[in-house]
Amino acid sequence: MAKKIYERPIIRPLNTGMMNKFGTRTEYLPVTHIDGVSVKSLIKQYGSPLFVFSERQMRENIRFAKRTFETRYPKVQFAWSYKTNYLNAICNVYHQEGSWAEVVSRFEYDKAINNGVPGDKIIFNGPDKTDEDLRVAIKNNSPIHIDHLDELYRLTDIATEMKVKPRVAIRVNMDTGIYPMWDRFGFNYETGQAWDAINKILASGKLDLVGLHTHIGTYMLTPSAYGVAAAKMADLALGIKNKYDTVIQYIDMGGGFASQNTLKGSFLKGSDIVPPISEYAEVICTALLNAGFKNTELPTLYLETGRALIDNAGFLLGSVIANKRLSDGRKATILDFGVNILFTSFWYDHKISPAQEFGMHTEDTVLYGPLCMNIDVIRENISLPPLNAGDQVVVHHTGAYTVTQSMQFIALRPAVVMIDLMGKPHVIKKKESLKDLEKNEEMPEFLKQFKLV
Ligand SMILES: *Cc1c(COP(=O)(O)O)cnc(C)c1O
Predict the structure, then answer these.
(1) Protein residues whose CB sits closer than 6 Å to any atom of ligand 1
(2) Residue minimizing CA distance to atom 7 of ligand 1
(3) CATH homologous superfamily for 56-310?
(4) What is the per-residue pLDDT for 10?
């Protein structure tokens, strides 16, 4: 019999049932299934790591949000924010639920067209629209949301040349009591920039001013800010009615409602402090209804809600590669997904659950990704039961901005699966391959060969 190798004994501090600020062991329930499908079977079939989306949760979210606004205001239209998650299958779930498309670049615009969204139901936002982009949007009768004066002048020029009157809105930024203020997009309300732009549009008569747009920030925890914003938007619309006898057809309040993720540095968990969508709805609808519009001239309320409609419908499944002890005694666990595909871990403390049963002990742990890069930290500190190499974890609230912001750095990007209402998984994006990656690379003739000695 071979002699056993000597292994130095290690003393590990196991904080059994230690209280944290929420009491004991609040976060530690294993998550073994998503919508009835076992996590282990998903990983077995599609690989690890793996993004999983719940069709049921997405539909529930949008239906609930629509109902919440429609019970408070007579004319409501949602538009799906493509940049939040523009996998075509995801977009189509929201389109099937009646959402239009909201895009911030030409390639997102083309995606919406290819998904079958009619041009007049694609809201074209963003600071970077080329002349060619504007021409395409004009031809398709899409509402163009103007970001700055240079765009306004170019658009006026193009409209004159094309002999058409494009449908436009201006983006407005304003002081809502939230700082730092988002004043880099659009025209400022308080300084009069917005009113100037409106006067320029209406005096020239070359553009059809159909709406007013704002997007005051993202992950906004203060619903009252939307009340302030809606009142200022209504004030502009009523000013236009007064001076030009023109009725503004819609007020677009943008997105930014918080999802239930927990911001880094937040004392309480997102699920405890994030306002429900009804609080945002209440202040926005009340501000518009009380603003003084004639009932027949109430503007339609557009909403471009992104993260709040999808974050909790997305999960990232992953596996433990190894455990180690850091020089200061802390425990570290290396996972097979890093900040390359979970970019959001730079600002969120994502909830992470083990995917299998475990014992009583927990220990403070650093979670690292697999990249050979010091910045690749998923959580600086999380209290988790000991996980063994090969064990699996489920990261929660990964539906928004993870797939669209994921980068191909060191590792290839994983597959994305959607579980349908019957509990059947469908691949909605295949795993990236080396071939996909090198598709656009070219090798000059003189570099094709080399000899190493
Ligand atoms: C990003 C964005 C949205 C969506 O924001 P969320 O925070 O995901 O709700 C909506 N409108 C515009 C103009 C955006 O840039």
Answers:
(1) 81, 83-84, 102, 104, 125, 215, 218, 254-257, 304-308, 400
(2) 256
(3) Alanine racemase (3.20.20.10)
(4) 67
